[in-house]
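User: Some background: our group keeps a shared notebook of sequences we're curious about, and every so often someone picks one and asks for a predicted structure to add to the entry. Today it's my turn. The entry only has the sequence so far, pasted here. Could you supply the structure so I can complete it?
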Amino acid sequence: MTPRFCVGGALVGPEEWLPTEPFDFPWAFIGCNALLCGGCKERVQSRVERPYVRRYWCRCQSRDQAGYHLLGSDAGMDRAFESQWMCGGHPALVLPYLLDGVELTETTNYAELVARTLIDPPFVAPGFKGTAFWVTRLYRVMPSGVLQAKIGEAVATHLWSDNAVAVRAALDFYIRNAAAAGAEQLVQVGERDRDRLTGLADPEDATGSIYEHLFDALDQRLIVHGLGMVDDPSAVAFAKAALLRGDVSDMTIYQVAEADPVWFADHAVQVATVRKDNLEYAVAALSYVPQDRRDDTIAALRMISQRAEREVRNWARDEGVRLPKRPANLPS
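Assistant: Of course. Here's the predicted structure to add to the notebook entry:
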């Protein structure tokens, strides 16, 4: 199988995860364990030197690292780290394999495995919270799309659970894997089980509900829909309805405005006023409105209140947009 290569390759301190398994490639803020030096042709070594510091070295140079650093991300900056270190490639996982004490084969019952490990993972890497880490990692390292689909479909069944930990873990999985099989059920569970999800306290956020966290996953689904990675118009329709009900704010407003700017232009005032904290996001989303609709949308938003007028003026200043003449009948 073709090895996977990191984009850049990352160095990490002791508080982040540097995997030991060669097939673990950076699908999140994870250190690259396959670094090679293009100068001396040696493999880059590392060890934890002291609390909060990991030392990397080859024959050419060394670096003490605390925190996460993507190689090349500081190019052109003062005191940039210059090296010829690069990812040498991560081989694919070959089955059968014993991962963290769990036997993985082509015929493993992945529905049963996901049910067990989604809420009780055998391992959670440094820097990760919640219980979805291990199943997310399993999905990412699986050597075939067929096995990945089995995992995604198994995760989706837990969206319908009465166990808040299981639902939260399933949502966290889809936040990182929005194009995975089963993610289309985000809309189905949101439409059919709104009351249940609203009543489930979020185990990771004492101030919120599972229903609110659903939209964090839905926002990612809208992104992959917009990129053409999946075709999920129902996600856009559900997000529109939720905006008009006042169920959601911030990122969802931007995602809907980008997905259907004409619809947003027609509904911008409703979106801005249905929920108190929507106004600033609705005004910022004016950037997505087509030019031939923007003046009318701006005028409608300015008529909401003096606060709306200020928000529009601030947006126009930041974007370098010249506003139409100030309406004479602005509300006080």
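Suggested note for the entry: The first strand starts at residue 10 and ends at 12. Strands lie at 10-12, 35-37, 45-50, 53-57, 62-65, 68-70, 85-87, 97-99, 102-104.
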